Amino acid sequence: xxxxxxxxxxxxxxxxxxxxxxxxxxxxxxxxxxxxxxxxxxxxxxxxxxxxxxxxxxxxxxxxxxxxxxxxxxxxxxxxxxxxxxxxxxxxxxxxxxxxxxxxxxxxxxxxxxxxxxxxxxxxxxxxxxxxxxxxxxxxxxxxxxxxxxxxxxxxxxxxxxxxxxxxxxx
Length: 171
Prior knowledge:
The protein is mainly α.
């Protein structure tokens, strides 16, 4: 079954939006808050753990964060919300490249939790939760997807460079 983002059937939109919101809320919790550190009573997620793997971990975390942004596009998040979400992913990915400091930042910044908070707030307000129309939304969607692809290429390239740098140091 194909979906049309400009469909106006309220029941269909509410039902599918809620399903996607539940999905991204669960993913954000898993990535940012699913593991409790008992001694300090602080929560981190799989994103912080996977991020400890140089290069590859940051790349994997960014791909999962990008999935949340893509889902936000699918359910018609406002352009301003999408751009703020991409900014959060970018900040976390770029600072995450810094060894140790980036991992600590990743565990505290929690871009995924921030992004689902933005998404929930944007879609909770009927004035800002309209489906992106084809005539006005294509440019915004292209910018968001272009930014994500560029970021994925940048982080992937940095990860490969870091890996080969470590290999050359060990030889």
